From TrEMBL:
Heterodimeric electron transfer flavoprotein that accepts electrons from several mitochondrial dehydrogenases, including acyl-CoA dehydrogenases, glutaryl-CoA and sarcosine dehydrogenase. It transfers the electrons to the main mitochondrial respiratory chain via ETF-ubiquinone oxidoreductase. Required for normal mitochondrial fatty acid oxidation and normal amino acid metabolism. ETFB binds an AMP molecule that probably has a purely structural role. It comes from Galbula dea. PANTHER family: ELECTRON TRANSFER FLAVOPROTEIN BETA-SUBUNIT, ELECTRON TRANSFER FLAVOPROTEIN SUBUNIT BETA. Keywords: Electron transport, Transport. Residues 7-89 form the Electron transfer flavoprotein alpha/beta-subunit N-terminal domain. It comes from the Eukaryota. SUPFAM superfamilies: Adenine nucleotide alpha hydrolases-like. The keyword Electron transport applies. Heterodimer composed of ETFA and ETFB. Identified in a complex that contains ETFA, ETFB and ETFRF1. Interacts with ACADM. This is Electron transfer flavoprotein subunit beta. It holds the Pfam family ETF.
C-alpha cells in the first residue's frame, strides 16, 4: 500500500492482527514444511536475517524484485494486439460500497488577525481555546 512513504501501513496491520512482521524485505525465502518465511532486510549495520512464522505481514524494499523492461519488439507487438472493451455492466451487478448520507458546503472562513509579537500570538491562541 502506498502510505506516502511513511512505512506505517504494514506495521499497523501487523499490530492489529497480532502477527509477526518483516519490514523492508529485500530477499525472501518460503519454508513450506515449517510454515515459516526467511526474510533478509537492510539495517544500518548491514543485513539482518529473520525467520518468521506464517501468517506474517511483510513490506517490500525496492531491491526485492528486479524489474523487467519491455523491449522494442514486444512494445510493437503489443500495439498490434486487439483491445476488447467491455461495458461495466458486463461484469455483473455489484453492491454499492459507499452510501452518501449528507453533502454540505463548508461554512465561510473566519477572517484572520495580525499580531505584533509571539507573546501576543500565544495570548490570542489561549483565548481562542
Amino acid at each position: 500500500a502506498i502510505d506516502d512513504d511513511c512505512n506505517q501501513t504494514g506495521q499497523i496491520l501487523a499490530a492489529i492482527l497480532d502477527w509477526p512482521q518483516g519490514t523492508f524485505v529485500s530477499r525472501l525465502e518460503v519454508e513450506p514444511q515449517a510454515q515459516a518465511v526467511l526474510v533478509e532486510r537492510e539495517v544500518d549495520g548491514g543485513l539482518e536475517r529473520l525467520r518468521l512464522k506464517l501468517p506474517a505481514v511483510l513490506t517490500a524494499d525496492l531491491r526485492l524484485n528486479e524489474p523487467r523492461y519491455a523491449t522494442l519488439p514486444n512494445i510493437m507487438k503489443a500495439k498490434k494486439k486487439p483491445l476488447e472493451v467491455q461495458p461495466l455492466e458486463a461484469a455483473g451487478p455489484s453492491p454499492p460500497r459507499l452510501r452518501l448520507l449528507r453533502l454540505e458546503e463548508p461554512g465561510p472562513r473566519a477572517a484572520g488577525a495580525k499580531v505584533a509579537s509571539v507573546p501576543e500570538l500565544l495570548d490570542s491562541l489561549r483565548q481562542a481555546g
